[in-house]
Design goal:
By secondary structure, this protein is of the alpha/beta class. The chain folds into two domains: 4-31 and 89-199, Rossmann fold; 33-80. Helices cover 35% and strands 13% of the residues. Strands 1-7-6-5-2 form a five-stranded parallel β-sheet. The longest helix has 13 residues, at 33-45.
């Protein structure tokens, strides 16, 4: 098994993705949710020992020495928008996504969040789009993404959760793994480490 980094792409792979056939996860791909998790832990629970690179598993209980109840409380705050710290976008995500939306129409986001909460308003603000510029589908479960993407004719999906990438791959959807500390296990998926790297894969006009 190996990681297929963008630096290893052939010319055929660069600028090869149909922009109307790609969709995106939100947390860890567009929104820097883990940094906000750390900020909430520090401000609301006086936990100031977590570093971003400490989050080596998507299952936070496996990598952080924090009580399950506190993790659940922080996650609930994230979902509900119950925080005073800013939720920041991943670097360059707004400019790439807004350009994609303006050239090719509405963006599709598929997230395992159980409900949108404030994320739609956040996307409108950060991407400078109105509600017609994108669609959010919440699944409530990671393994529910694949069937939705297949029904929408999506061939590529940008995802940060490695386990979800395996599910997508089995269903014939090509995952693009957005590199994060929690997905560093060996894998054979196409990887990008930034939105500028991802931009090079998409067939812009």
């Amino acid at each position: 098994m190996y990681n297929k980094d963008i630096s290893q792409h052939s010319q055929r792979e660069v600028n090869s993705i149909d922009p109307t056939s790609i969709a995106f996860d939100i947390d860890g791909v567009v929104a820097d949710t883990m940094s906000l998790f750390i900020d909430i832990a520090k401000r609301d629970f006086s936990i100031d020992t977590i570093r971003y690179e400490d989050i080596t598993s998507y299952s936070l209980e496996e990598c952080l020495d924090i009580e399950h109840e506190i993790i659940a409380a922080i996650v609930q705050k994230l979902l509900d928008g119950d925080y005073s710290e800013p939720l920041r976008p991943i670097q360059d995500a707004p400019v790439v996504l807004s350009g994609l939306a303006k050239q090719f129409g509405p963006l599709l986001f598929v997230t395992a969040r159980p409900y949108p909460g404030p994320i739609a308003e956040w996307l409108m603000e950060k991407l400078s789009l109105d509600s017609s510029g994108f669609e959010i589908i919440t699944t409530g479960a990671f393994d529910a993404k694949a069937d939705i993407l297949l029904n929408r004719g999506i061939t590529h999906f940008v995802e940060d959760r490695l386990e979800t990438c395996h599910i997508l791959d089995q269903k014939g959807i090509m995952p693009i793994l957005f590199r994060q500390p929690w997905n560093r296990n060996n894998n054979h998926f196409l990887e990008v480490g930034s939105w500028r790297e991802l931009e090079k894969l998409i067939r812009f006009k």
